[in-house]
Amino acid sequence: MIRKLYPQHFMNSIISYIKIIRPANALMTAIAVILGAWLSKSNAGIRSIILLVIAAISATGFGNVINDIKDIDTDRISHPGRPLPKKEISPDSAVVFAFFLLSFSIVNSFLVSKAHCIATVIPLVLLSIYAIFLKGTPFAGNIIVSVLAAYPLVFGGLFEPQMSRLLVPALLAFLLNTAREIAKDFQDIAGDMQAGLKTTAIMPQAVIKSIMLFISASYTALLFVPFFLKQFGMAYALVCAVIVLPLNIYWSILVIKSSWISYVSKISLILKMEMLAGLAALAIDQLIMSL
User: Fold this and answer.
1) What is the structure's pLDDT at 140?
2) CA-CA distances (angstroms) from residue 13 to 20, 73, 80, 145?
3) What gap in Å lies between CA 191 and CA 71, rounded to an integer?
4) Which of 88, 159, 174, 178 has the most C-beta neighbours closer than 10 Å?
5) CA-CA distance, 174 to 172, in Å (whole number)?
6) DSSP conformation letters of the chain
7) Residue 268 phi, psi (nearest 5)
8) Which of these, 125, 137, 146, 152, lies nearest to 66 by C-alpha position?
9) By the 8 A CB rule, do 147 and 174 touch?
């Protein structure tokens, strides 16, 4: 009987460690890096791209783990199902795992080049600064997280021939992530307030609404710039017009409502769908152009 329990316990532990790095985020990071390499016409071989994907996933996982270590008290209220508040992983084990991910990220990027290693260390430092110092600060923390969320797309095409094609898409990703981080602050407000964290959610609602609508307007203004610059073709423009732009308008309408705070979970989900649609627009266009 005891022997039968060990494999199950081992599998549960593995699942908990996978959960703490946020597999959905890891998948989006991997897609962004591969897409960045593809769009920039990367000269890197398959081996180098795989190493960059591993480095980026490990760095993202590191950020999520140290964030959960820092947020263990607030997550007992806001996210009780996460591995640390559920005691599936101990805080000490989480620290060891974070250092493993940190080291693994640096080693894999170094195997590509010293320049890529430096380009990996910079976001790792920013992730640490955010988790330790900026987590409970209004807006500044949102900006850091959004920069880091947009970074994998550029990271995949760093130092490559057509890296400039990635700059506007990365800026668009930054804008959407900023809006989503603000929405998530409202989702987590109960736990954050109990822990004494002063996130963007404590700012006057009129100010936050103005920021969200400014982000939406800026995003709309930039969305078709890659098409007009002839960096991307008609397929990109069509996907953006038919899917991406309507999603952007939808969440903006929800923000305009007087009771918009009650829609923050829905807004967050729509923004995530919009990000995926944006990546799909880039991929579909590149695929058609490659035929």
Assistant:
1) 85
2) 11, 21, 17, 28
3) 9
4) 178
5) 5
6) -HHHHHHHHHHHHHHHHHHHT-HHHHHHHHHHHHHHHHHTT----HHHHHHHHHHHHHHHHHHHHHHHHHTHHHHHHH-TTSTTTTTSS-HHHHHHHHHHHHHHHHHHHHTT-HHHHHHHHHHHHHHHHIIIIITTSTTHHHHHHHHHHHHHHHHHTTTSTTGGGGHHHHHHHHHHHHHHHHHHHHHTHHHHHHTT---GGGS-HHHHHHHHHHHHHHHHHHHTHHHHTTSS-HHHHHHIIIIIHHHHHHHHHHHHSTTGGGGHHHHHHHHHHHHHHHHHHHHHHHHHHH-
7) -60, -45
8) 125
9) yes
* CATH topology (fold) of 11-290: Tetracycline Repressor; domain 2 (1.10.357)
> Tokens 């035929």 appear where?
291
pLDDT at 126: 92
- Mean pLDDT of residues grouped by 10 in the chain (291 residues)? 55 89 94 96 93 97 94 85 93 96 98 96 93 81 91 94 95 97 86 71 89 98 98 97 98 94 94 96 95 81
Q: What is the pLDDT of residue 179?
A: 97
Integer Cα distance of 286 and 202 in angstroms: 42
What are the distances in angstroms from CA 215 to CA 146, 246, 262? 12, 15, 20
Quote the pTM value. 0.90
282: exposed, middle or buried (Cβ count in 10 Å: 0-12, 13-18, 19+): buried
Judged by phi (left if over 0) then psi (alpha if -120 to 50, else beta), residue 45 lies in: beta
8 Å CB contact between 122 and 107: no
Instruction: Please tell me the predicted confidence (pLDDT) of residue 232.
Output: 97
CA distance 57 to 70: 20
Q: Are 285 and 169 in contact (CB under 8 A)?
A: no
